[in-house]
Amino acid sequence: MSQAPSAPREGSLEAPTRHPLDWQRAEFWDPAALERELERVFDLCHGCRRCVSLCQAFPTLFDLVDASETMEVDGVAKSDYAKVVEQCYLCDLCYQTKCPYIPPHPWNIDFPHLMLRAKAVAFRKHGAPLSAKLLSNTRTVGRLASIPVVVEAVNRANRNATARGLVEKTLGVHRDARVPTYHSRTADKRVPHDDDGTDATPAGPTRGRVAVFVTCYGRYNQPQMVEDLVAVYRHNGIAVKLIRRNQCCGMPKLELGDLDSVDRYKRDNLPALADAVRAGWDIVAPIPSCVLMFRQEIPLMYPDDAEVQAVKAAIFDPFEYLMHRHQAGLLNTGFKQGLGKVAWQAACHQRVQNIGPKTRQVLELVPDTEVVAIERCSGHDGTYGVKKATYGFARKIAKPVETRVKQAQAQHFTSDCVMAGAHIAHGLGDGREAEHPISLLRKAYGI
To answer: Has UniProt tagged this entry with the keyword Metal-binding (predicted)?
Structure first.
């Protein structure tokens, strides 16, 4: 039987506690132990149902329970647990914004980490389809697709209905899904020189010199975003250099449950990041998911790794960094033009960093600018929003955001997650494109 939600206990206003992901312990990989924990947590979730509106994982679970003979979790076939797991895309919103039973509550529910564990056990036992492995290998795909001779053919094929039909059959990418454009003039070419950082001015937790973890998407798909970030930072007297040799942050592999690849990427990335931190540089990444990997997911996988923890302490969201500078009186507020009304979708992987709406706060410093915040998931979430199996669910999740954007009647639509922005813009279907907020800020500066 489901346990009824308990009354708030003394001390329940304590800050949430995120326990390390104990992935190197044998019990983590034990299918029987995993199954028992899935049943325990699913039973508690069934008794609460507070998260039903967040994503498709919870409606899937509750539909399975309601269709069972007992109408309880004990009536759900264990083999159907995987149907719930495959709908979770690890946005973390249930943990951070909804669940009343997260640690330090004695029920100790961490739904995202349980789903990650289930994905990891399934991946180690069964692997994944070649299409899923390819889609999650963003750096390799980006490197190949951005070759000058290849890039136009790739972009042209992505706009061709016949080619998209073939891709749907072979890779499982829905023919109607918005897929990214590739650029041969990558971010490294758009930012040809690095600053030496000798004239940096510290402020608060920032040191005034930033090493940019460019990200796969920033390098190959949205190099203008990186160029705009560098221009805005330099306009504010912040020294900038690019980390020019890096692997993927590992988030796509994490979402697949491929923890061995996450481990390999971590070992590839960490030396350059840790060297930069030791040399007095802060780290910034223009994609929220990449910041989250180094700020939360990798530190939880390696809680005793001093270099991992040093990088965690030194990495910032771009607008979080700018707000620290503003609070110290160092942000350039000499804006040349207002932005009017801006509809801003707060990306899930930015919200769960618990830094507050820093993007909105910085944009609202621009005169004649109103920011309408939309705190709902876009439904894109890595490959979830493009796969044939889940594209319909992704469009359903995005619908409330699209409605809010239309109601705002704003001059600009933006999201810190460029993939979420593109997914929402595609659903709007009115020809508008999402703009990255750092690009809007550059426009306001007139630089």
So the answer is: yes
